[in-house]
Amino acid sequence: MQVMENERIFENTGILIEGGAMRSVFAAGVLDFLMEKKIQVPNVLAVSAGAYAGMNYVSEQKGRAVEAVIKPLEKEKYMGPATFLKKGTFFDMDFLFDEVPKKLAPFDFKTFCNSKKRFIINTTDCRTGESVYHENFKSEDQFWKICRAANSLPFISRVSQIDGAPMLDGGMADALPIGKIVEEGWKKVLIILTRKSDYRKKYRFFYMMMIRLVYHKYPDFVKTVSGRSKKYNACLNEIEQMEKEGKALVFRPSKLAVENNESDVDTLMRYYRHGYEEAMGREEEIYNFLMS
What we know:
The chain is α/β, with parallel strands linked by helices. It has helices at residues 24-36, 50-59, 64-70, 81-87, 93-104, 109-114, 140-150, 171-174, 178-184, 205-214, 219-226, 228-244, 265-280, 283-291, and strands at residues 8-9, 13-17, 39-40, 43-46, 118-125, 131-134, 160-162, 165-169, 188-192, 248-251. It contains 14 helices and ten strands.
């Protein structure tokens, strides 16, 4: 097996990390393996909860996702109907984006800012229905504010204000931003998906009825969400084509599947290890792909 003893940065390459709330721990497992092997990819594009995995890759905090996302559930059930009744959001956003990164599992914002890697995250502008990309963070408070907006799903989260613009979860406009990858011109991309290969998104009639009812003052946002399943599935087809052409190396869960609101610690740890083991089993393939 080919082994790289020294850290190497692979120029003109990127990582795309899909969201999916608690499913993001699979991506964290993949990224922790890359950190362990000192595989440095300079561009990190994260969608929604993918940010909670990707940020640790940039700040070089291997294992932090376990400490920040999974272990707190042993004592604090930070999601569910009780949280919604108390906070007005399904996930306790104050806990996840304030208490955890500053107290329970401190985030190394200094290393993050000084990293040679770019970290890109998207939100959805409710006024236009378009994806907005963020990579310049003026302060740590602003960083967490944007991350919170990027993870704010309709119905179960409040609309966030970023520079005066109403924002919701980035995955609503661009769950798999292949267009951004093309725009950036990355030659090679590691793509971390959080669902099995046979998954395709379905149009949900009742969900769209509720979207139209609750977000009627944002007609372009409603239009975007209406076409979301079709766009997502088209992007999956593009990713499969990129795989065939040798432009993408894709990691997906193959053995396990969890829901985005999974809260069982043991189940989430298995899903995290699944991601780590998927990457470990393809170590030589990763090196060959990035070096070719």
